[in-house]
Design brief:
The structure is a single chain. This protein has 399 residues and is mainly alpha-helical. It folds into four domains: 33 residues, no CATH class; 105 residues, no CATH class; 169 residues, no CATH class; 31 residues. The chain contains 13 helices and three strands, in the order αααβαβαβαααααααα. Strands 1-2-3 form a three-stranded parallel sheet, with helices on both faces. Helix 11 runs antiparallel to helix 12. The radius of gyration is 32 Å and the shape is extended.
């Protein structure tokens, strides 16, 4: 009897608030409330997937899908199931989540992108600070600033995860992708060769002479013609060899082998570095694999494994050595191209910055402010903000 009464008593109060509560489903109040819950509907067996109208639907459009997940393993797992289902319809699926789940996502045959952050640290912070306002102990320990840094890292990772890299799975898809990109650029430039001169004529003012309008139209035509030839040259000399080298290098992925990454080509120096590494590894792996792959296959699967290993060795010899030979020129070419383009991008950024400075000076001068007045106002604002922040931190309400 006492045991039954004790079951109905509320649990003891917590000495420290940690954001969790205990619910006793066997208590008297829980059983009373359960009587008001309606009965669930009768169970019906799930439909056979082969009879489902969704399973029979033909999806002609293949999508690039990024699923971003922040949380524990239990938060990630349902989206892996969703990603696998989407992948079964031909879509390309990438799971963007914490670094510690890389092997978990990779074992599901889905793409993985690390966004940073530590889920255990995040959960511990949430338990320690269940409310909106963090505790004084968290403020003193610097937890808030660390979480800001972590959230900034995760937001940056989530943003970058949308950049779907154009992976080279084989030389045919890589050449097709490169060729399509080149043709698209050439078609756009060819259209501009007609549209840009016409646009110059349309924008000409009545005061402009016929010769001035003609010069503008011819200048626009010349720019578009230069872009057309640039696309053609860059595609044939730089992009196509690079795509072939990458496609041949990635062929082992087709039969389940890992392909070592030599880094990203960012400039001329990295291009020569990647080209050299790819040449050394491609030649050594291609030649040695002709002997090691059959022996490894025979050790694992006997005669059938020996035959498979021989096929892998011959294919590796052809693809890896060819990738090495082409890559010794293609990777440096890609790096040199990026180094040539980089100064023009830097000039654009500098031009934007100078325009912003000019805009600021114009706004201050239009309001009758001098540089000294602007600096004085800024210092007053910083001093006022720092005093206000100190007062808020002292009260425990600073987030």
């Amino acid at each position: 009897m006492d045991a039954e009464l004790n079951q109905d008593e509320p649990p003891p109060a917590y000495t420290e608030i940690d954001g969790r509560i205990n619910i006793d489903l066997d208590s008297k109040i829980a059983r009373t409330l359960a009587s008001f819950v309606p009965e669930p509907p009768a169970y019906s067996p799930p439909l056979d997937p082969r009879q489902s109208p969704i399973a029979q639907k033909s999806w002609k459009i293949r999508l690039n899908i990024v699923i971003q997940v922040v949380g524990s393993r239990g938060d990630v797992q349902p989206f892996i199931a969703l990603g696998q289902e989407l992948q079964s319809y031909g879509h390309r699926v990438r799971i963007a989540t914490h670094d510690c789940f890389a092997s978990f996502v990779g074992a599901s045959n889905l793409e993985f992108y690390p966004i940073g952050g530590d889920p255990h640290d995040l959960m511990a912070y949430m338990v320690k600070n269940p409310g909106l306002i963090p505790s004084m102990s968290s403020l003193r320990a610097g937890d808030v600033q660390r979480k800001r840094t972590m959230v900034e890292q995760m937001l940056s990772g989530c943003w970058k995860s949308f950049t779907i890299t154009n992976e080279r799975w084989d030389p045919f898809t890589s050449m097709g992708s490169s060729g399509f990109s080149t043709i698209r650029g050439m078609v756009t430039s060819a259209g501009d060769m007609v549209a840009s001169p016409y646009s110059a004529v349309q924008k000409a003012s009545p005061e402009d002479s016929a010769s001035k309008t003609t010069r503008k139209a011819m200048a626009n035509f010349g720019k578009s013609f230069g872009k057309f030839n640039g696309r053609l040259f860059h595609g044939a000399i730089v992009d196509l060899p690079f795509a072939v080298a990458e496609g041949l290098r990635a062929v082992p992925k087709l039969y389940g082998e890992e392909v070592q990454s030599h880094g990203e080509v960012k400039d001329a120096a990295s291009g020569f570095s990647v080209g050299g590494k790819n040449f050394v590894q491609g030649m050594s792996d291609g030649i040695s694999g002709l002997f090691t792959k059959p022996m490894q296959g025979m050790k694992e699967e006997g005669a059938l494994g020996f035959a498979k290993g021989t096929g892998k060795g011959v294919l590796g010899l052809a693809t890896k050595t060819t990738s090495a030979a082409i890559g010794i020129v293609a990777y440096p070419g890609q790096g040199i191209s990026k180094s040539v383009i980089a100064p023009f991008k830097l000039m654009t950024r500098k031009a934007i910055m100078s325009q912003r400075l000019a805009e600021g000076e114009h706004m201050s001068s239009s309001e009758g402010l001098k540089n000294a007045d602007v600096l004085r106002k800024f210092e007053e604002l910083v001093t006022h903000a720092s005093k206000g922040r100190g007062a808020i931190e002292a009260s425990g309400y600073f987030v």
